[in-house]
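Protein Entry — a single chain follows
Next Lines — sequence and tokenised fold
***
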Amino acid sequence: MLVLWECDGQTVNQIGAKLHLDSGTLTPLLKRLQAKELIKRERSQEDERVVQVFLTPSGKDLADEACTIPEQMAQCLNLEASEVALLRKIVGKLAG
């Protein structure tokens, strides 16, 4: 959802590249999100092999609720802001 909140209407391949997931792993996740009516998947009119993913109004509304998650996680972990920043930096290096 974070990837789509950054830029709606991306292809499955674009989302997979950003998340480091292949389509075999990503497709079941997208199907679950579609079943919850958070996204819709559409075949491209230019190339039917390409599937684009769009947020539904419910999916867009969920972004507001998600904004509170980082703060809640930090409270649960009992970390200071500087420690959270360091953790993000380390995770970024691991993911990159």
Notes: The chain has a mean pLDDT of 92. The CA atoms of residues 46 and 52 lie 11 Å apart. The chain has one domain: 2-95. The radius of gyration is 16 Å.
